[in-house]
Amino acid sequence: MARVFQLLGKRWTGLVVAVLLPHPAHFADLRRAIPGISERMLSDRLTELGAAGLVVREVDEGPPLRVVYGLTEAGAALQPALLELGTWAEEHLPGSPPCPGELRK
């Protein structure tokens, strides 16, 4: 459990995964979908998720050259857990605003 929270407990990490659950996205699309995250932080989180085997980075040759990020099978397998966390938050964290990329059952 400590290893899970060491990775997913970092600020923004869960949101990055949640935004990627429906479909892969370009870096700029991820940045727009997660208000408040800096380019540097998004890059760091994507690198960490990639090193953990949860996100894959693919280069579109272009022109222009663009990078697409998507979840691996292991990353997509987080969906049920994230849905449960979202349900828990709705029940036990009253008044919390919806988060970007929020998952719904």
From TrEMBL:
Name the UniProt record assigns to this protein: Transcriptional regulator
GO MF, any single term: DNA binding
Coiled-coil region list: none
SUPFAM superfamilies membership: Winged helix' DNA-binding domain
Superkingdom to which the source organism belongs: Bacteria
Keyword Transcription regulation: yes
Keywords, in A-Z order: DNA-binding, Transcription, Transcription regulation
Positions of the HTH hxlR-type domain: 1-97
UniProt xrefs under PROSITE patterns: HTH_HXLR
